[in-house]
Amino acid sequence: MSRNDKSIDGLVRRTGDAPRAPRNLSDVKTTTSREYGRTARKPELKDDIDEVLRNLPDPSEESPKKLRSKRKKAKKQGKPKKKIIKRVLLVLLILFLAGLGYFIYRFIKFGDSVFEGSIISLIQKEKLKEDANGRTNILIFGTEEAGHPGADLTDSIMVLSINQTTKDAYMISLPRDLYVGTCTSTGKLNETYWCTYQDDEAKEKAGAEALQAEASKILGLDIQYWVHVNWEVLRKSVEAVGGVDVTIESSDPRGILDRNFDWVCNYQCYFVNYKNGEVAHMDGEHALAFARARNAAGGYGLPRGNFDREHNQQLVLAALQKKALSAGVLANPKRVLDLMESLGQNLHTSFHTSEVQTLIELAKDVKNDDIISVPLLDGEKDIHYMKTANIDGISVVVPTAGQGNYEAIHSYIKKVLSNDPVAREYASIDVLNGSDTEGLGAAEAKKLEQANYNVVNVSNAPSTISGKIEIYQLNSKMTGTAKALKKRFSVKTIQTKLPAGIASDSDFVIIFGKSTSK
What we know:
The chain has helices spanning 33-36, 43-55, 64-114, 192-197, 204-219, 231-240, 284-292, 306-324, 327-330, 333-346, 356-365, 407-416, 421-425, 440-450, 479-489, and strands at residues 136-143, 156-162, 169-173, 225-230, 244-247, 256-258, 272-274, 279-282, 347-349, 371-373, 377-378, 383-384, 386-391, 394-399, 428-433, 454-460, 469-473, 508-512.
């Protein structure tokens, strides 16, 4: 066989064979002898040709070398994209960690400046200290912001008493002008902290403890903790929670007006001006002014001066507690952090960091509506444990029993904070004689007083009732006293209007008929 007898496909052809089959199998078609003028190929030969053709490279495809080169190039081009993604993720991670670190830093800074002890102790949950009656008593006092005249005078002094088990709480405000004979010429209670502190930050604790001891002496309470805030913390805290809502309570039908703060609006408004009974939404500045108002500059609605101011301070604090614990604030990290930071800059306390978790739980469990205000002076409720006086030409406040005589106050506070619901609620009771027996009302009132009931009025009923006792409950919150009266007299309380001819602002009215009680 000659060299020319070999075709490029490696097959040996004889002269006269049919034309070479096309490279693409799709072009192969069945032919007949008529088309080529001779007999068709044998099937075996066609199968061999198809097999060879299937193994031939397609000219339309790129060579393996070119494909490998292309893949390497694509791989190199893909690397920068992956690097960019990695770098973006890394930057995001760094920003997240930086933000978290800053948050932790601010929280630690807050804890270190507010509480005693290490910030690590926050993971602990210690029970708060208690007195012999199972109550935790906390002195809370406020001063002006730094740079203000008289910045270290404690113009707001109150004691919060909480039972950690029953969750009941009482707030007692102490008159700032109460004469206690401390180290200054005026001898007022609001100078006690400053006398010891004397602008020396290292002595802040000593000043706070001196005021704590004085408050304990006045109320007859073992006070375990103290909290020092300035007026700035109130303003910032109210701003941090988005404002508070306060119900205006005044004996004046017009409401409350104090012109002492009109300078805030350049004397173009009445800055503290509220209608009686309205629910006023206050921002930080208005809440602060309202808490400091005391009927100055020709105002009205605060006839008791500082005593009304102390009551309004309690209202603002209760509203702040309610708003701070609301879902809207707790769900907003910025507001929580702002609130914490406002406290951290303006609040100091003797609480230990290991007690913080217990404090937070108590703040959630003790609702502001359940915090009972305990007044030392309230003409409407006939509570007169304090009075104004003049000592050496200075207007001061002294106990009604006499300067330095706190026995009546101790007895009163003990009753209010007692586990006995009657003494604790200290509900006001009118006793009316509805019988024809002279002196019956006075005799029954005396028995009630001996049993720690708070009888504020004894008189005759406009008409007699026969053979029974009627007990009208005018205050639905006094449930403990209602139960005790029901048990004492075996009579259900009546929660309807009083009989014709009888008017009362007391919590209960008891009318005794011909048949006396036990």
